[in-house]
């Protein structure tokens, strides 16, 4: 690419070369006209004679040979240490007797200079994906939160006070098996669109197939009200998603069901990351006096997440921005 202060562009080079080769100008005269050196004028004229107009474009500044380049077997050892042990350039250089700058240059060429680009389980570069339009794929999952006792939980009132609140709440609700206070678990079924990251969430009393199917049906209607047609759904291998009832429900909704590979939650990483955002932004973000108060705050937080919260994967725009732009024919 021609830089901003270049004296000659490809079009100007062609004019210069034609003045010398076709019109018979002296290189010094043509160089003076274009305010470049005579050596430069001769260079472009020679390229024009050899390659015609195709020779006027920029060439790579990369050398034709690099005899001191890091050998291939050393490069493989650097990559192996990076993958398997997640070492930095200084540690790798110390083991192999190389300069850290050399190791860093190899890692940059292999696109392994950032540890976040490497999968923690396999050690291979992370392959990221995004479906091309809203509704092309939705992720579903269930996340669990311990219910908050009356007058607050231990995260905000301390463990001793929180345990007393939990015991009193358990006595009130009658949930005291074997003398240990138990105030139950909140099952939050979540749905997130792969392309837009728009989220839908709903509390259910359990994580059975019947509850999961009900959430899926209502989520499909919720997306349809916003002009999005759900085509595929991705889930983990939970029992509710492996049931025949779930399979039949997907067929009735004309949705293709896909499951992640066992022990591979990274495949469903978008919704797993949403659960972390959900916990930080809503579940444990502030002091709640009861579980009912926390549940009442969920719709407002979801509206903030979908309509106002900047999303780093969307260029600091809220998720709903990709739904509002889903005009007919926009995503094909």
TrEMBL record:
InterPro entries: Homeodomain-like_sf, Integrase_cat-core, IS481-like_transpos, RNaseH-like_sf, RNaseH_sf. GO terms for biological process: DNA integration. Residues 130-326 form the Integrase catalytic domain. SUPFAM superfamilies: Homeodomain-like, Ribonuclease H-like. GO terms for molecular function: nucleic acid binding. Gene3D superfamilies: Ribonuclease H-like superfamily/Ribonuclease H. This is IS481 family transposase. It comes from Aeromicrobium piscarium.
């Amino acid at each position: 690419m021609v830089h901003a202060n270049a004296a000659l562009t490809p079009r100007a080079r062609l004019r210069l070369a034609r003045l010398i080769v076709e019109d018979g100008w002296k290189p010094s005269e043509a160089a003076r006209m274009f305010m470049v050196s005579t050596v430069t004028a001769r260079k472009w004229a020679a390229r024009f004679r050899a390659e015609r107009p195709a020779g006027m474009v920029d060439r790579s500044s990369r050398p034709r040979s690099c005899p001191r380049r890091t050998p291939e077997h050393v490069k493989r050892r650097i990559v192996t240490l990076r993958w398997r042990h997640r070492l930095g350039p200084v540690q790798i250089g110390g083991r192999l007797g190389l300069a850290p700058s050399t190791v860093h240059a190899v890692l940059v060429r292999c696109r392994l200079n950032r540890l976040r680009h490497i999968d923690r389980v396999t050690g291979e570069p992370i392959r990221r994906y995004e479906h091309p339009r809203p509704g092309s794929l939705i992720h579903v999952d269930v996340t669990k939160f311990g219910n908050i006792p009356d007058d607050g939980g231990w995260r905000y009132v301390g463990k001793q006070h929180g345990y007393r609140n939990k015991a009193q709440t358990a006595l009130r609700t009658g949930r005291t098996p074997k003398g240990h206070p138990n105030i139950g678990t909140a099952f939050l079924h979540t749905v997130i669109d792969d392309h837009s990251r728009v989220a839908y969430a709903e509390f259910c009393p359990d994580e059975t197939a019947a509850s999961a199917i009900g959430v899926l049906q209502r989520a499909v209607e919720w997306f349809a009200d916003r002009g999005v047609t759900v085509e595929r759904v991705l889930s983990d291998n939970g029992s509710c998603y492996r049931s025949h009832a779930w399979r039949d429900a997907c067929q009735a909704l004309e949705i293709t069901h896909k499951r992640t590979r066992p022990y591979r939650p990274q495949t469903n990483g978008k919704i797993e990351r949403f659960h972390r955002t959900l916990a930080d932004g809503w579940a444990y973000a502030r002091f709640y006096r009861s579980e009912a108060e926390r549940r009442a705050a969920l719709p407002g937080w979801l509206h903030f997440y979908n309509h106002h919260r900047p999303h780093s994967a969307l260029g600091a725009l809220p998720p709903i921005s990709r739904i509002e732009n889903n005009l007919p024919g926009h995503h094909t």
